[in-house]
Design a protein that fits this description.
single chain, 133 residues, mainly beta, five-stranded antiparallel sheet
Length: 133
């Protein structure tokens, strides 16, 4: 079976191109480009080792800025997740792409027996001089 996005490849990510749970990307650059049939100038995010970019809308810009900072010059190298969802546009529900911060991995617990134990004070410690006898 051939999907529409396979039959008509695009240089831009579409909601249908992404897995339901989303996909992590590393930002390579943010460039202003002419896109669409009307050739409007828009900001497009490009990702490391990806041929497709993401046209940024104000919502996704604000979402990225919330965790990578307001200065877009600092975004390259940052990680984001693109995921498909829906929004209302022109009174209709339509597919869209949203961004979020990647989930941080839970800190790993030390293996049993490898925990660092607090050392017991020795007579050489500073507290040894404070013994009241």
């Amino acid at each position: 079976m051939v999907t529409k996005s396979q039959a008509f490849p695009s240089k831009l990510w579409k909601a249908d191109d992404l897995p339901e749970g989303g996909k992590v990307f590393k930002i390579e650059s943010l460039d202003q480009e002419e896109v669409g049939t009307d050739k409007k100038s828009k900001y497009v995010l490009h990702f490391v080792k990806q041929d497709k970019g993401l046209v940024l809308n104000p919502t996704n810009w604000d979402l990225i800025a919330a965790f990578l900072g307001a200065d877009s010059d600092n975004w390259p190298g940052g990680l984001i997740v693109l995921y498909p969802t829906e929004t209302t546009f022109g009174g209709k529900t339509v597919p869209c792409i949203r961004v979020r911060r990647p989930r941080e991995e839970a800190p790993t617990k030390p293996k049993p027996g490898t925990e660092q134990r607090a050392s017991k004070p020795t007579p050489d410690d500073d507290m040894a001089d404070e013994v009241p006898f």
